[in-house]
Amino acid sequence: MQDFVDIGEKIIFLVMLFASILAIAVFIERLIVYKRNFNKESESLLDSLTLLIRHRDLKGTEKLLESHPMENSYTRFIHFVLEREKENHKGLSELMEGKILKERLSLEERLPILNTLGNNTPFIGLLGTVLGVIKAFYGLGTLGNSGAEVVMRSISTALLATAAGLAVAIPVVMANNYFTRKMKLVLGQLEILSKEIHASFITSGKHNQSSSSTPNIHH
């Protein structure tokens, strides 16, 4: 039985090592993606886009996007709206909602990995501790009082598994919360852009059409 417990402990620590490497890889990849939406250039671009949309300046918006080739959620969204506007596509509001949903899926990509690791690595570490305690008690029963030193070392090693699980889980949970908050900020800004576009182009366009179709009545 002790051989199986030893193998189980080794597997637990290998799983912890793999989980930590995976978490670091996902963190770096997501950090690169989110940095495109959160820097001084993107914030300045977002303010300029909002102002141009508010003034219904489509040509100015296109020139601004051409001068800022950086691709992020905001530029993709505006490019999408401009293309649909050129096509005179009906149902622009619904299309913008769909585009925001697509951006959400893109920003959420790989975050479930962090969520899964953060929720489960403590339990994996606890499993390693349980295996270590089993090993310690087995040694105590086999060696008796003369094996107390061996037993204490086994328990110490067992507790390392729980410590490893927490060491992986805590940073992962913090990273997942960080990216989730940033995602909400990006989606909130996209919602604001959507409302600005709706107010400046869709609503005002309908108002202009209704005004032009109203006959002049002379008394």
UniProtKB/TrEMBL annotation:
**Entry's InterPro entries?**
ExbB/TolQ_transport (IPR050790), MotA_ExbB_proton_chnl (IPR002898)
GO CC term (a single one): plasma membrane
User: Where is it mainly found?
Assistant: membrane
Q: Which residues form the MotA/TolQ/ExbB proton channel domain?
A: 81-191
Return the protein name.
MotA/TolQ/ExbB proton channel family protein
Task: Respond yes or no to whether keyword Protein transport is given for this record.
Answer: yes
Task: Tell me yes or no: is Hydrolase among this UniProt entry's keywords.
Answer: no
Identify its membrane topology class: Multi-pass membrane protein
**Which superkingdom?**
Bacteria
